[in-house]
Amino acid sequence: MHRTPYKPADFEPFALAAVMRKLDVLEFGRVRDDPARVRPAHPGLERYAEHALAQYLAAAKSLDSEEELLPDPKYWVRQSKTTTDPHGNRTVYELRVWGRCYANRERTVCELRLLRFGSVRPGRRGRSEREPAEVSMAAYIAAHGGRAAEPTRWGDEHNVQGAVTPERVRVVEIGCLDGSVRSLFDGTPDEARAAYQRLAAPRLRATVDAVHRRPGAGCATCRLTATCPNLQRTPGILGITDSSRPRLTLSVTDLRRYANCPAQEHLRRIHLPYDKDIEHDRHVARGHAVHAWLQHLHARTPQRPCTVADAPANRTDWRVDDWHLTGDDAELGARLIARHAAVCPLRHADPGTTAIAEQLLTFHDPQADVVLVAKPDLLYHSGGSVVWRETKSTKYRTPRGGKDILEQYPQAALALVLLAEGVLGGDAHRSRVEVEVLRPSGPDLELVSPHQADRVATARQVIHDLAAPWHRDRTSAPNPGRRCARCEVARWCPATAARPASSPSSELQ
What we know:
By secondary structure, the chain is α+β, with helices and mostly antiparallel strands. It is built from twelve helices and 20 strands. It has two domains: 15-209, no CATH class; 250-472, Lambda Exonuclease, Chain A.
């Protein structure tokens, strides 16, 4: 299978790597990574990394104990090798921890510190728990692994040195946003091994034995993307003929962010902590809540069209998933859901077929070397043809701005291009894109067909006009303006003043 050549990114794509390098310089006087693969940090990432360094050092002081722990410049690796076959071949399996490694002088105590982008405080909104299998594997490597330097060539096995098995192993995580600390494991090597065998080993065996392919956002970093048989090709879908740029994942959301500000798109792409209360203001939160409610209705078994009675019963206080609406927002949201019943797509779905909400679609445009991802609000079959439904909600009773619907909703433009390319299957004769706009006065439903050559041309132009500037950009520079006041990553932007970490109405994750 053909392997894609290495194309270095313009900027460091993994934000915590920049934090690790600052800690390397502080603790060892040098960066341990291969200099040829170290990419410069975006100015916004540099700002975050400086903040994260200060928070880490403050957290480290709180971890001081009776044992004097010293940073270990080596990596901790657990290595196992199969027996050599008659041809002289063998397989080497390696598990390596990624974090800050510390031990006392006698190595009777080993402590691994894992970094998190945001906070690790319990109950912090948006904080995800580390899986027990991940924690048990980290503890196992810290307890039973050896020490090794970075291999000279990427992909080579580590030259692992034997290490004295410690008496005690600790795994903690540190939030780089606020210096918060959380203990994940504190026990003996035997306890670490038992946890690993129970929780992590079955997952690892399943991973090693896996043969199926699952296209997704990760295809951008896969060395086999260019020839993967399970990844659909859509040559030229972006209208860009330049494959020299590093391969990235792209969504319509990315393009809309880039149109607002290239720096904002980049800082969100590398997962810097962001202000959820700015991104999800009350209007956005209401839209998400309406969308989630309809998604649950369309996922019912057996599937059936929505009715007015399916709207929230308590119209002034209702909750769905992580969204909670009260007062006027709840009332408007419930009214919009009730309006949807008149145009519910399941009224026209073919019997015996299944409508699918939020299915991840992945395509590769080799001419631009971009992995394109999309999640239709709903895909269903009608008359044997594939129909792509996008649902939007608004507080406005009439359309505003006079924009072409394909320009106003680039998701619809991408959907139309994909249907025109025939990559979604089904009978193309009646395939269409449906844009449903829920208004307080009633729903608007606009249909666009891939057989309308002028509309397809408009859709292609919309996508190209959004994607081309993003694809050729090598600086991701800020675009200061009025939008900065409502930018969820303004705290890290070099073009704006520092913003406080949190306030009663604001929270970063």
